[in-house]
Amino acid sequence: MPTTHQPTLLRLATAGSVDDGKSTLVGRLLHDSKSVLADQLDAVERVSRDRGLAHADLALLTDGLRAEREQGITIDVAYRYFATADRSFILADCPGHVQYTRNTVTGASTADAVVLLVDARKGVLEQTRRHLAVAALLRVPHVVVAVNKIDLVNFDEGVYRKVAADLASVASDLGLPDLRTVPVSALEGDNVVDHSSRTDWYAGPSLLEILEDLPVADDPSHEEFRFPVQLTLRPQEAARDAAHREYRGYAGQIASGVVRVGDEVVVLPSGRRTTIAGIDTADGELAEAFAPRSVSLRLTDDIDVARGDLIAAASSAPEPTRDLVATVCWLSDVPLSRHTRVLLKHTTRTTRAIISAVDGVLDLDTVQIVPAEDLGLNDIGRLRIRTAEPIAAEPYARHRRTGAFLLIDGQSGQTLAAGMVGDPLAGEGDHADEWDI
Amino acid sequence: MTTTETVEKAEAAEQAESRLTLDYLDTLESESIHIFREVAAEFERPVLMFSGGKDSVVMLHLAAKAFWPGPVPFPLLHVDTGHNFPEVLAYRDRAVAEKGVRLEVAKVQDYIDDGRLFDRTDGTRNPLQTQPLLDAIAEHRFDAVFGGGRRDEEKARAKERIFSLRDEFGAWDPRNQRPELWNLYNGRHRPGEHVRVFPVSNWTELDIWRYIAREGIDLPELYYAHQREVFEREGMLLAVGPVSQPRATETVVTKQVRYRTVGDMSCTGAVESDAVTVEDVVVEVAATRLTERGATRADDRISEAAMEDRKKEGYF
Predict the structure, then answer these.
(1) Considering only residues 143 to 182 of chain B, which have any Cβ-Cβ distance to chain A shorter than 8 Å?
(2) Planar angle of CA A197, A199, A205, nearest 5 degrees
(3) CA-based nearest distance A416→chain B, Å
């Protein structure tokens, strides 16, 4: 059978401290992969000249807002797109300031891989540990560390080896499943796309080669099937053709796993069991479908299903609960203590919730929970939450989609916190029975 | 090669193939469909911005898929600058009839006729769309407005969320955007506020064209190479038409051109092209060395922050 080569999509998030050269690296990646077009480069060269710079400042490619260009800093997450022959990349470029942890959390939440920058001269800093802890917390499958400014340490192998060893040790402390390192000079382009002749002691792949080879996501065939219902499709008289007037399907995007016609499923929180009668798309029926495909499911039995319900594999379904222990990253300027009654958005269900207790705040340096009574902007803490309705929540460590939630201020509508059920840093299965879920 | 090696190789290949990975266009399509369904489920009165341009055509195609076998459950809105290409308006009306959706039109010309807006000295009406747009949103009490903006188009757009909250003035505050995590979109808004939603945020120009080719989506003819009378102004080829007349120093020539974007005739340039079919266009876009807006939009050349400034005032 001939192998058909299908292009894939990989989502990346960048992280790094201020002045690690992150915007320069992203600019270099875009430039050397020929994703920057001539008029964009002209504009960058013109502005660089106006500012009296000797080289084109590639950071200008990514700093999109007026204030960013004026202050020479990156304020907000910017999304970039580039592609090679076999792969398209979506890159969330996250600012490095310590007060912008919320942006790194945002970028990492959807990422298949985090690209972290470390200054070869400075090595592993407190902020490097924090960024790695965020990647571990958000369960990003891969971390690629670009040990940057290798030109400023005279391409010294010893310096690189020391940084790489320190990183490996932090990764092991945090339980990061996959961390790779590569020595680069973002400014000069060494090992970003092409191999550098100035680091002949490094035989590994360039940064882009690493990114081209990473597995895109967990293989859905090894996951448990989860399907949050977005809405019921029941067109009746409005159906596009007469044959579908009686149609009733449940529309959603498969959050994890594979579903086949005939599979036994359970609808949560009601707990009603049924089987899959059909998997539909506008292009026709499917015998099976897997994450992250959007489909519409028909069920064998006429049972009550609505937006907010979760259709799950009957063999592995979670137990709905109203009491959660969760790890949250606080994203609001207004501290948690001012928001005891909130809205909780989990998959497609939004319910009222009360924060019943603060167990503590995570010290990102020691990765230990220390006692605390409140959470402020950028704090990561452990909370106990009670919801008005039962939700089919499960440990974030096992299910990124059905373990994640938002806390929202019901009055202002602001997003207050990014929540993860359980303790994502404890790893798969660990302490599972302590989790009250 | 020994038998063992052959078997091992075959097993490895089989393992790689048995790994379930969704094709990237299917991944983008599924993400967009998810966004359409979230909005339909959570908002009272959504509307889809539809100009007949390729991004809005792809949006409508995705919306139709999202709600199949039901109808698209919201109307379309076109802000008509009065400077449209006639073939695009004809296409717009044809597409609306085929999909069986309702079209609302807000006309810049009405505002100019009764003195609420004035034509600018440079003749472009793109920035004039903002007021009719905001008025239409207020009049119809639209609470979610789908736009075809893509983050690869322009650097201010690269910072835009998929759900982007606008205040009662339609203003975008880039420094105070809600963080957007996982695929959990927060569309909560207060009365008078609305949310701009960008279902094709993560698509690039090339993705759009590959999808148009794959799905066999019909587009206005001017996206494909054709003979047209044009004249050159500021490095762009402008079509000769009622609102875009050459000055005495500008020579009219007939060239084989196509449009990469479709907007206000007075400031949207054509590019020379031999791309007659959709497959030709895919090849052309993949090889291009100029961005879509850089090549064809005079209004984005005004300053480094032209788009950011328009967006802050309520533009899409």
Answers:
(1) 151-152, 154-159, 165, 174-175, 177-182
(2) 90
(3) 9
Nearest to B225 by CA among B278, B295, B279, B275: B275
Q: How many angstroms away from the CA of B86 is the closest CA of chain A?
A: 30
The full set of domains in chain A, from first to last, is 8-217 (3.40.50.300), 221-316 (2.40.30.10), 321-434 (2.40.30.10)
pLDDT tens profile B194-236: 999 999 999 999 999 999 999 999 999 999 999 999 999 888 8
* Fold designation for B24-206+307-312: Rossmann fold (3.40.50)
Residue predicted with more confidence, A34 or B217: B217
Interfacial A residues in 243-262 facing B (CB < 8 Å): 244, 247, 251-253, 258
Which residue type does A196 have? Answer: S
Mean pLDDT computed over A318-340: 91
> Is the separation of the CB atoms in B271 and B228 below 8 Å?
no
A242 touches chain B (CB under 8 A): no
The answer to whether residue B67 neighbours chain A at the CB level (below 8 Å) is yes
B34 inside 8 A of chain A by CB: yes
Closest CA to A408 of B245, B165, B124, B220: B165
> Which of A324, A308, A316 lies closest to A268 in space, CA to CA?
A308
Q: List the domain boundaries for chain B.
A: 24-206+307-312, 220-301
**Residue B1: pLDDT band with limits 50, 70, 90:** very low
Identify whether the C-beta of residue B20 lies closer than 8 Å to the C-beta of residue A290: yes
Instruction: Yes or no: say if A397 and A422 are a contact pair by the CB < 8 Å rule.
Output: yes
Q: Which of A226, A294, A346, A352 has the most B C-beta neighbours within 10 Å, making it the best mutation to test the interface with B?
A: A294
Nearest CA in chain A to B296: A39
Contact A252 B180 (CB under 8 A): no
Residues 6+ apart with CB under 8 A from A244: A235, B69
SS3 assignment, position B286: helix
Contact at CB, B175 and A67, closer than 8 angstroms: yes
Tokens of A332: 């609001």
CB A141 within 8 A of CB A218: yes
Query: Which residues of chain A does B184 touch, with a Cβ-Cβ cutoff of 8 Å?
Result: 345, 347, 404-406
What secondary structure does DSSP assign to A120-185, as a single string? TTT-S-HHHHHHHHHHHHTT-SEEEEEEE-GGGGTT-HHHHHHHHHHHHHHHHHHT-S-EEEEE-B
The ipTM is 0.91
What is the rounded CA–CA span in Å between residue B106 and residue B80? 6
Amino acid at A280: D
Q: What type of residue sits at position A19?
A: D
Contact A356, A386 (CB under 8 A): yes
Out of B40, B159, B177, name the one closest to residue A64 (CB). B159
Distance from CA of B289 to the nearest CA of A (A): 5
Nearest partner of A206 among B152, A198, A7, A24, judged by Cα: A198
CA dihedral B257, B261, B263, B268 (to 10 degrees): -50
B21 interfacial to chain A (CB closer than 8 Å): yes
Task: Compute the nearest-CA separation of A430 from chain B (Å).
Answer: 24
Q: With contacts defined as CB-CB under 8 Å, which chain A residues touch B71?
A: 235, 238, 240
Rounded-to-integer distance, Cα A326 and Cα A385, Å: 8
At residue A104, the pLDDT reads: 85
pTM of the model: 0.91
